[in-house]
Amino acid sequence: MSSTIELGLDTFGDVTVNGDGTPLSQAAVLRNVLEQGVLADQLGLAFIGVGEHHRPDFAITAPEVVLGALASRTTRIHLGTAVTVLSTDDPVRVFERFSTINALSHGRAEVLVGRGSFTESFPLFGYNLEQYEPLFEEKLNLFVELLKGQPVTWKGQLHSVAFSNQKIYPLIESGTLATWVAVGGSPESVVRAAHYGLPLMLAIIGGNPQRFIGYADLYRQMLERLGKPMLPIGVHSPGHVAATDEQAKEELWPHYAGLMNRIGAERGWQPIGRAHFEREAADGALFVGSPETVAAKIVKTVKTLGLSRFDLKYSNGTLPHDRLMKSIELYGTKVVPLVREQLS
Fold first, then answer.
1. pTM summary value
2. What is the DSSP code string of 79-94?
3. Is there a domain that residue 139 lies in?
């Protein structure tokens, strides 16, 4: 584990503000995401994942287009999603798009498939939210067949097209298309990932990461029971790095609070206050602070859950681009070496 830990980044392309607090256009945010990804590549980070949302506060609606642009401007970093909402997409088109990115990037594409915690894609693309679970199950079943790289014969109940010895292009040059299942906290989803023999990505966005020990253990137990090899487990969590703990928290707090309370209002949650923020920073899922503080928390989480990857969601609400760039720089130059040193 310690010798193979991968450290990456995630962003949803949150719409940020400039120096005087004016929101940037979504177009400007997309251009900034490219600069952030290029910096991550230059720093030698393992992965950058871009989210898929269809709402005004996030700019990335077409993650594969962003990843294609990043493929042309980077050389080492792996390129993926956080997440691809497979329930409301066509598995064949998802495979074709990521196989194309994989070709353009010389094998650096990864897909993180999930059901997503936002549901705006269901009415947007004409899907019934009441089929939230069966849509994902059926489409994942088809996608796993596509990953085998062989002609596909398949028929589902909800998918309108049946396949008979159908080839899907472009073919993967070598191996298979790296694919993870992203899970937000459902034991059934953990079992599903093990059943299909796909690596598990735990989205831990609140509470102590230790509460996910049961999911990590369940996943390994199911892999063993199913006769499958042990596979990677990763974690995606929000955070921000600055020179000191105080600076990092003061920079992040108003933007994090704005994001959480805006989403919370949509979902009927109570507004969070500074005490909640401090608890999340101290013992919860918020990786905010100096490089030393963030590194220590990552190390603890890696050891507790037996992780192979940790991805920091460095974009948080309207936190400005220049601070995101500084956070990425500190993550790559300070946090990553500290984590590796402490795990070695």
1. 0.96
2. EEES-EEGGGS-HHHH
3. yes
